[in-house]
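Hi W., the 2-acetamido-2-deoxy-beta-D-glucopyranose complex you wanted:
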Amino acid sequence: MALFDKSHSIFMVMISFYSLYTIFSSVLDVSNAVQETSTSGSAGVDGFWPLAPKHVIINNTVQSKQTLNVHCKSSEDDLGLIHIPWNQTWGFKFHVNVFKTTKFRCHFTWGIGESHEFNIFTVARDDDNFGDYEVCKVCIWEVGRDNKGKAMCRVNRDELNHPVCFPWDDKAIL
Ligand SMILES: *[C@@H]1O[C@H](CO)[C@@H](O)[C@H](O)[C@H]1NC(C)=O
Ligand SMILES: *[C@@H]1O[C@H](CO)[C@@H](O)[C@H](O)[C@H]1NC(C)=O
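Structure:
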């Protein structure tokens, strides 16, 4: 009997931990929350060593001022559908993998019928010291601010006036 009671209370403890976890995860699941994904191993050096820690921030700057719906995925992580109010941000953190093949691709929708895809993080563009663009540790993206064909602008926190802008890559595949 005593044995039964003991295992029963252990079971209860597990249940309450589980419900705490569930509550906590659902509280975290809001826009503006920073999502932590596959944090593996020690920190590396950006642009050179693998495992560099990265923080991607998405800023809703669509011209129609509507809510931006974002769904980002890598081959390992699905960050779910997030709704970002206009002029607000949402972000996620991860480490570049050992093979430096980490890629996050996002699907953006807003308004009636706006639907676009973009590789929000690639090693070649965002974490290569010998690449065409500066390496970013905090990679801030303004979405939809420019309407002249280059809707995705990566801004530098220190130099907000010097964005590098790219068109959607709707046709590329992950
Ligand atoms: C989002 O972008 C707008 C336009 O550049 C800027 O005014 C605003 O401060 C940005 N928001 C954040 C949180 O960086
Ligand atoms: C956008 O957000 C920034 C803070 O991130 C704020 O300073 C700015 O006034 C906002 N712009 C508008 C038009 O609300």
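Residues 33-166 form a domain with the Immunoglobulin-like fold (CATH 2.60.40).

W.
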